[in-house]
Every structure is written in C-alpha cells, then in structure tokens.
Amino acid sequence: MRHLARYGSGILVVLPLAGCQGWQSALDPRGPDASAISVMFWVFTAVCTMVWLLVFLFLAIAVGRRGAARHDPLLTDPAQERRFSVVVGVFVGLTALTLIGLTAISYAGQRLIYDRSGEQLTLKITGHQWWWEILYENHEPQRTFTTANEIHVPVGVPVRIKLESSDVIHSFWLPNLAGKQDLIPGRQNVIEIQADRPGVYRGQCAEFCGWQHAHMSLLVVADSESQFEEWRSRQIAARAAPRGDEARQGEQVFLNNSCVMCHTVRGTSAGGRTGPDLTHVGARRMIAAGTLPTTRGSLAAWIVDPQGIKPGAQMPLIKLQPDELQPLVSYLEGLK
What is the C-alpha to C-alpha distance for residues 149 and 217, in angstroms, rounded to an integer? Predict the structure, then answer.
C-alpha cells in the first residue's frame, strides 16, 4: 500500500504536465521563436513561484512569531526600527533587481523573436471567415501559386509570412513554432517562422472572429528541402486531367454548377476567388479549415450539407441531381 501511495502521488504530480507536449503546445517548441518564448515562460514561472513561496514563508514566520508583551504600545525600540528599515530596504532592492532581471530576459527574448534572419521563402496569408488563403510568392510569376489551410515549409529555413485580413480581425498562432500575430483589415503585419524538425504542426486563429472561430485552424507541414520542392512543383502545376469516366463526369458537374463562381481550379474555366483554391484539394489533409479529414465521405458530407457541419460558413448549399454527387466527389478526390 505504501508503494501504491508513492506511485499514486507521483502520477498526480506529473499529470498536470501531460498537456505541455503535443502538436499544438507552446511548451513543446520546434522552432527558434517558440524556443525563446518557452524559455521566457519557464524562467518567469520559476521566479514568480520562488517569490510566492518566500512571501508565504515570511508571512507564516511573522504570524507564528510572538514578541514580548509591551506595557506601553506606543513605546518604540530604535534599534528594532533600524533593523526593520534595513530588512525592508533589502527586500525593496531585491524586488527591483528581480523586475530588472525579468525585463532584461524579456527584452533579450523579444530581440531574438523579431530579429529577421534573411528569410528564403515568403508567403502572404489572408484570413477569411473562416479559412486561410495562402499565397506562395516568388520573383518568377510562373512559380507563384495559391492554396488554402495547409502550409508546407522546408526544415531549417526561415519563412516570412505577410498577414492580411479580408473581413474582421483574426490572429495567426502556431504554438509549436512562433507566437501570435494579428491580421487586421487594411493593414499588413509580418511574422517569421522556422521549423527545426520535420513534422505536422497545428495552428489556430487566436482572436474571436465570429461564429466558427473555433473551426478556423490550419496545418504546417515541415519537410526536407527535397520533399518541399517536390510538393511545390506539384502545387505550381495545373490540375491533372481526370482519370476515369466518373471523374470526367464529375468535372462537368463542377464546371456546370455554381462551384465555379467561388472556387478556382487551375487548368479549367473555374476562376472564382471567393472560396479556397481547389486545384489540389485532394492532396490536403483536411477540408473546411481543419473541420474534417479529406476523405470521400467528408467531401460528400461537406458538399451536401456545409451549414450542418459548419453553420454560418460562406459555403452555400448546392442542389445536385442524385447521380451527380458521387462523380463530383471522385473528381475533387482526384485533384492532387
């Protein structure tokens, strides 16, 4: 029983730390900016905890200590008053040094975070209610392309991100890689991120932006440079020709309905700009800004009843004939 109690107490102590790891945790840094923020967090936590413990320790000593009874309450002891003055002065000095030290640490961390290190890749991200439009910029126009809700970056490469909003204030937050930066209508803010290790990291809008704010997430996929270049080459290319009769029929369904008013599929007549670019939607891990995984069933559900899945989204209900849904899903699934 004694061993069980010891193990049980150990589990209870460690349990609160279980949330400090994961693919959306500021305390699980995978980039230089996130590491600077994590260091500042733990230093501030340690110092504040120490101060808190010392305050309660001295408070307990003061409460538990009983001095000699005084016959005259107004009578003071000059020597004791001088000692009290010295003690108070020492603690005021320690408090000032603590504040100065924390300020210096914060300043050093901010310098590291906002030190632009010569980015090699530039993106422009526009926040919409409730999805992310991602433009990969390049000095060669033919290498510029647009995607949505999923960012791919090469490991170890600084990435400069220009942030804009088309409607309300959003906030771009990738806890594992960087801090928060707002997207404000009529203004462009800039943030730099860098992934030091391969992986998939989840981001989130961190500013309440309306009904579906909680369903406005994005993924960052960090790959080796060769894998990233392969992915970029596929994204630059126009859509591949549909394979199979069902997919070809699905393309006609797409082009003959109101889909083309909102979405772009490069290589076709669809050139809508209101909704996400769907040229390679089948290759993305999630749809509807992280609401559903990209599966055949999810695509069908999203087409049939977008308001039931994400109420308030700009995706309208599209009236399809019974024999049109499956070909349309096959077509979208094949856009990779």
Answer: 7
Alpha carbons 133 and 144: distance in angstroms, whole number: 13
Measured distance CA(183)–CA(170) in Å, rounded: 5
Confidence label for 75 from pLDDT (cuts 50, 70 and 90): low
Last residue in a domain, options 208, 236, 264:
236
Residue whose structure tokens are 């080459």: 233
Cα gap 299→328, rounded to integer Å? 9
DSSP string covering 170-235:
EEEE-TTT--EEEE-TT--EEEEE--SS-EEEEEEE-S--STTGGG-EEEEEEE-HHHHHHHHHHH
Peptide bond just before 52 cis, omega within 30 deg: no
DSSP SS3 for 139: coil
Rounded to an integer, what distance in angstroms lies between the CA atom of residue 180 and that of residue 133? Answer: 18
Quick one: 210 and 255 in the same domain? no
- As a whole number of angstroms, the distance between CA 5 and CA 31 comes to 39
301 vs 299: CA distance, rounded Å? 6
The domain spanning residue 213 has which CATH number? 2.60.40.420
| pLDDT score at 120 | 82
Give the count of beta carbons closer than 10 Å to the beta carbon of residue 60.
10
CA distance 162 to 30: 21
The answer to whether 293 and 217 have CB atoms below 8 angstroms apart is: no
Whether 191 and 229 map to the same domain: the answer is yes
Q: What is the pTM of this model?
A: 0.77
Cα-only R_g, the chain? 28
